[in-house]
Amino acid sequence: MTIERDAGPVTPAGLDPVTFEVLKNAFATAVDLMSEQIMRTCYSFVIYARDFSSALCDASGGTVMQGSADIAVHVGTLHFQCRAVLEEFGDDIGPGDVFAVNDPYRGGTHFNDVSFIRPIFAGSELIGFAQNKGHWADIGGNVPGSFDVNAKEHFSEGLRITPVRVWHRGKQLHDVARLLVSNTRSPYSCMGDLNAQAEATAVCEREVLRLVDRYGKDTVVAAMAGVQDYVERIVRRKLAELPHGEWHAVDHLDADPGSPEGLVPVSVRMRIDDEGIHYDLTGSAPAVSTFLNSGYGTTHSALYAGTKTFFPDVPLNSGLYRVVHADLGPEGTVVNAAWPTAVTGFCSGPYEKLMNALFEIWSQVVPERAMACAFNLEYLLVGGRDGRTEERPYFMWYDWMAGGWGGRNGKDGSGATAPVFGPGLAVQPVEGQERLSPVLTSRHSIVTDSGGPGRYRGGCGLEKGGVLTDCESTVMSYCCDRARSITWGIAGGLPSVPHGVWLNKGTDEERFLGATFSNVPIEPGDSFTRPSAGGGGYGDPLTRDPELVVEDVIDGYVSVERAAKDYGVVIRPIDPELDQYEVDTAATEELRASIAAQRRDWLAEDPHAVARRYRAGELDMLDVIRRYGVVLDWGTGELHENTTRQYRELLQKRSAAHWA
User: Fold this and answer.
1) Phi and psi dihedrals of 531, rounded to 5?
2) Which of 134, 428, 603, 609 could lock onto 49 through a cystine, CB 3.0 to 4.6 A?
3) Torsion of CA 320, 322, 327, 332, to 10 degrees
4) Is the pLDDT of residue 654 over 50?
5) Which helix (DSSP H) or strand (DSSP E) does residue 580 occupy?
6) 199 class by beta-carbon count within 10 Å (0-12 exposed, 13-18 middle, 19+ buried)
7) What is the 8-class DSSP label of residue 626?
8) Are strands 276-280 and 324-327 parallel, antiparallel or unpaired?
């Protein structure tokens, strides 16, 4: 192990570099033990699939250390929530206390994410906090799972927990605990998670106090401060090696239901100077009339996580936060929503749009790490009464998917990967889902042609389907986006595929439900399916090595048809059963020249004519998106005129401007 000789700060406690390194890693172990505890004791299948995070904070609430596999969005908010407890209770905090909070308007994420915060005392002195945040499968509100797309205010979304004491000096306040869980559709499970999360924070407390016994309180406290100083120094040193200047990028939500059709901008301006990194979001749209808005905590978290993606070797704690300065603009925007604006869908809305906008910006600053857009986080919720038992209890089938990340400079994008929202998020095992809910999984496989074409292809997405079995009073809700602001490529790369749910696809009752909806009634026997997008492509797809396209065809990532349409590579099947194909070199050269001569004209064709050809079956969805830059209602084929105009402008900038 290489230890930086200046890693350990000089302190009154005489903290030497070796002791500093030992304690830095011991803090990480303490947080990881907290995570292991919650994995073994939680009641919720959602939390078991790693939709939780943990952190150790100092006495002022600053984050000292996160867990090794935590969800990025959670970690970037934990210091806000810790400080909310300090603001609320001040000196009235003692050993054995545990506080709960989920308030998005006090720096939290959304109402389902409930944090438990335990102060750590060395004798009579408060030296830190242990915190665990877990996603409860339900927190009340209008729909099972608490994801109500139609919500305009938080009152429709579930229970808002301002900082509240749940344990007092080691004794659980049972009335408070019952009040919290009784506002959910699964009080038994939530009570189990409540106890498991609180006990997990006790594990971290135990580990920190063990370090105090061994090294002394002053040394441990100095190391907590030193870890944050260490990260700040590393980041500032890296910034000094980068160009200073200003950059700008815009990503989009699909639509605002309360406004005319058109993409909704999430704008990011970034400046690097001697003081650090400065983000300005003042060009972002007003809050939308649905739940796809972000509070200040999650917006800051997106900026932290998007920045750290380009500094993968830097730990994430408040030392990084000191270097990142943000102007979120006025309250009331889609990135700075104030109470009581609905915010539960922030994760699929502004959060991932901010991260991908930062990817585009940092790809210009650090081009060797450039990466195109990644697929959008999505949640599908099916809830109702489980008819498999006489009691007919509530069930929540709560599912998210892996998908593709963007193509990179020199490498294809990662396929079937957790979302940028939280790379530690696990895909739920279908066997567990089927045991817990009356939903059978009918399909779960990679989607051919879902990776955005490019010199370096975007990673592929997945398709997952299900069938309702013995259920009653059941509804479906979906939190996603990018049915219209489709996952995009950069440096000449092309887009992926749209998100969206199909009900009873391939039958007379087929319906495209879109990428955001709530409370859709469904019955036993109904089937549903949805893809996750792949990542956008990086670089001109006509410059991709034809032999790599053949390998993609063999692997099932690209079809022979789209190899020709997207990459201009003509492939002759010799024996597909034995994965034997060959490139027709002469035909490929001719086709690539033909596509290069026509593709700018395709982006200027009358979009109404393109829509008519789609409805007539002359063009497929990928033709419409990738060749013509046209966005439709994918169920009816209706043209989204304003969206198409905006989408074409973006394609011109990100793709066509880089074609030879």
Assistant:
1) -95, 155
2) 428
3) 80
4) yes
5) strand 580-583
6) middle
7) I
8) parallel
Average pLDDT, the chain: 94
For residue 211, the surrounding DSSP H or E stretch is helix 187-215
Strand 571-575, strand 580-583: pairing: antiparallel
Q: What is the pLDDT of residues 564-612, one digit of tens each?
A: 999 999 999 999 999 999 999 999 999 999 999 999 999 999 999 999 9
| d(C-alpha 383, C-alpha 398), whole Å | 8
CA atoms within 13 A on the CB side of 311: 24
What pLDDT is recorded for position 427?
Answer: 85
> Would you say the C-alpha torsion 404, 405, 410, 411 has a positive or negative sign?
negative
Asked whether the predicted pLDDT for residue 425 surpasses 90, the reply is no
CB 434 within 8 Å of CB 440: yes
Q: How many CA atoms lie within 13 A of 299 on its CB side?
A: 29
Q: Is the preceding omega at residue 340 within 30 degrees of 0, hence cis?
A: yes
Q: Do the beta carbons of residue 254 and residue 483 sit within 8 Å?
A: yes
> Confidence band (pLDDT; 50, 70, 90) for 199?
very high
Is residue 237 classed exposed, middle or buried when 0-12, 13-18 and 19+ CB atoms within 10 A define those classes? exposed
The Cα 39–Cα 229 span in angstroms is 31
Q: Are 430 and 444 in contact (CB under 8 A)?
A: yes
Name the E strands within 362-422.
379-386, 394-400
Closest CA to 224 of 61, 75, 58, 60: 58
Summarised one tens digit per residue, pLDDT across range 352-409 is: 999 999 999 999 999 999 999 999 999 899 999 999 999 999 898 989 999 999 999 9
Query: In the structure encoding, which two tokens stand for residue 174, read together?
Result: 């049972």
Percent of the chain as helix, strand, coil, to the nearest 5: 35, 25, 40
Whole-number Å distance between alpha carbons of 569 and 217: 66
- Among 68, 57, 63, residue whose Cα is nearest residue 25: 68
279 has which bridge partners? 270, 326
Which residues is 403 bridged to in the sheet? 417
- DSSP secondary structure letter of residue 589: H
Alpha-carbon gap, residue 492 to 244, rounded angstroms: 25
Residue pair 603/578 in contact (Cβ under 8 Å)? The answer is no
Provide the β-strand partners of residue 580: 575
| CA R_g for the chain | 25
β-pairing, 462-468 vs 527-531, is: antiparallel
State how far the Cα of 332 lies from the Cα of 307, in Å rounded to an integer: 24
Q: Which two tokens stand for residue 629?
A: 């830059």
Give the count of beta carbons closer than 10 Å to the beta carbon of residue 583. 17
Residue 339: DSSP 8-state: T
Residues 6+ apart with CB under 8 A from 562: 449, 453, 622
- Strand, coil or helix: 621: helix
35, containing H or E segment: helix 17-41
The C-alpha atoms of residue 84 and residue 355 are separated, in whole angstroms, by 25
Nearest C-alpha neighbor of 253 from the set 607, 515, 533: 515
Q: Is 270 helix (H, G, I), strand (E, B) or coil?
A: strand
- How far is the C-alpha of 601 from the C-alpha of 604, rounded, in Å? 5
Mean pLDDT of 550-565: 97
Cis peptide preceding 330, ω within 30 of 0: no
How many Cβ atoms from other residues are within 10 Å of residue 312's Cβ? 7
Single pTM value for the model: 0.93
Q: Are 459 and 411 in contact (CB under 8 A)?
A: no
